[in-house]
Amino acid sequence: MPENMKQAVVYQIYPKSFSSHRQQATGDLLGVVDRLDYLAWLGVDYLWLTPFYCSPQKDNGYDVSDYYRIDPAYGSMADFELLLAEARRRGIGIMLDIVVNHTSTEHAWFRQALKGRDNFYRDFYIWRDQPNNWQSKFGGSAWAFEPESGQYYLHLFDQTQADLNWENPQLRQAVFEMMRFWADKGVAGFRLDVINLISKDPAFSEDDSDGRHFYTDGPRVHEYLQQMHREVFAGRELLTVGEMSSTSLAHCIDYSRPERRELSMTFNFHHLKVDYPQGKKWQLGRFDFVGLKRIMSDWQQGMHAGGGWNALFWCNHDQPRVVSRFGDEGQYRQVSAKMLATALHGLQGTPYLYQGEEIAMANPAFQHIEELRDVESLNAYQQLLASGLDRTQAMAVIRQKSRDNSRTPMQWDSSRFAGFSQTQPWLRLADDAGYINVASALADPDSVLHHYRRLIALRKQYRVLADGDYHCLTPEHPSLWVYTRRSAAEMLLVISHFGAEAQSYRLPEGVIPEGWQAELLLSNYPAPAVGWQWQLRPWHSLLYRLTPP
Ligand code: NOJ
């Protein structure tokens, strides 16, 4: 794992929506090259690009049809090599998204598999004579019937995303060989898509829910990741992050504890389910703030104690925009976005920021289902209608929950298509692009963008951000999240007010050792009076560093 991992910040790019060099409806790799100076200025160390391999784009590239080739819509291998070199020249590493729980049904392996039960590639996938009751994460049964052979294949996602059979050692070798191909090209890391789903319980038993018990953190997943480490990561300086669906703290400690030689760190999603009523995503819900703190605190303390490492994030291409979700997308958009940034970047782990988060992009308030493109959202809309909601009610849910909320084009400037392209983009722009954009944020030293840049710089400056322990002082408070980070030589105090009401807060006695000096490193309001008591303003955020006398 790279030495700088604990001080690094990763920026996530969704190439389709980032920047179109060729001035087309979709973004491309040269568009990323065009923006490298901006990303270097921001101070990020790695760029994780979501998949740009050949793909029929049923799930925007998470349905790979050829792992070795770049989809012409995104450019060429020469464009990718240019991106690698230009990023490296600026001290930035490129991380690839590796999607090996499944392939597209248009992948050559799957096409071969269709040729008959005794084909070598048949066993690269999971076939059964009878389906069980497992459900696809995109709705409906997880099994699709293939009439030629009379068997069903498993697809935990879309029907065009067939699950790979990791029990087959030859499949594993084919995956590792492909990963070595990219590592040899000089990529700096990998983000591994739903990697904790690759080991299915071979009994394929019926489940009393959707089947997830039988494949989440499944029986051989650690063994497979250790093999991947030996075959691909060993001897290379790669940053590796696993996307872990419905995982547990104990498993994530094991996935990321260096001695186990699996991954550098893990993403989990428990903190982003605090607005799912009874665990249901496709229902309107207010968010449970106390629950959010409890989850964050458990993972901070648990990973610290267990020697694991967290990937920290509020946003990605599957999540609604955080300022709309946990902040205020109206009057307090700027201050609440800064508060959310500080609350997250003060924690232990490696922060990931997702394109547009740094300028406080919000959900675009989709009005009509025709505006959406995401397969999951379109399926969910139909299911909501089938469950009895009318169109207005179904659309209200989609507007709040859809993954397309985060996939609208990046807002670079106030020109017609926001500097993303000179053509109508594949997904509509948010209406606020005229004033929420990178150009105006760069020009305003008080912008959310400059705030993020300072946070990124602080992580490199103060070791306590990487090493310090974590203690929450306000676990039950309805709007305050106050925590400390301590190492032997210094301490941080982070105060975050999740709300618009005036709020006072006094630090309990004994939190700060006698005689320690406080320095305010960052806030979203002018510095308050010195002392251990505050009159907090709407969405107030304060980050202090404390040092011994
Ligand atoms: C997680 C990815 O982030 C998401 O976009 C995708 O739909 C699923 N995995 C399936 O690959």
Give the overall shape, derived from the CA principal axes. Answer: globular
Specify the helix fraction band: 25-40%
Radius of gyration: 23 Å
Strand order of the largest sheet: 13-12-11-5-2-1-15-14
Describe this structure in words.
- With 549 residues, the protein is α/β, with parallel strands linked by helices.
- 28% of the residues lie in helices and 17% in strands.
- The protein has helices spanning 29-34, 36-42, 77-89, 108-113, 169-185, 221-233, 249-256, 289-306, 322-325, 333-345, 375-386, 391-401, 438-443, 448-461, 464-467, and strands at residues 10-13, 46-49, 53-54, 66-70, 93-98, 102-104, 127-128, 143-146, 151-154, 161-163, 189-192, 239-243, 265-267, 311-312, 350-354, 469-472, 480-486, 491-497, 503-506, 517-523, 533-536, 541-547.
- An eight-stranded parallel β-sheet has the order 13-12-11-5-2-1-15-14. Strands 16-17-18-22-20 form a five-stranded antiparallel β-sheet.
- Strand 8 (143-146) and strand 9 (151-154) form a beta hairpin.
- The longest helix has 18 residues, at 289-306.
- It is globular and about 75 Å long.
- The structure holds 1-deoxynojirimycin (NOJ).
- Residues 59, 62, 99, 157, 193-194, 243, 317-318 line the site of 1-deoxynojirimycin (NOJ).
- 1-deoxynojirimycin (NOJ) is lined by residues 59, 62, 99, 157, 193-194, 243, 317-318.
Features:
15 helices, alpha/beta, 28% helix, globular, 549 residues, 8-stranded parallel beta sheet, 5-stranded antiparallel beta sheet, 22 strands, binds 1-deoxynojirimycin
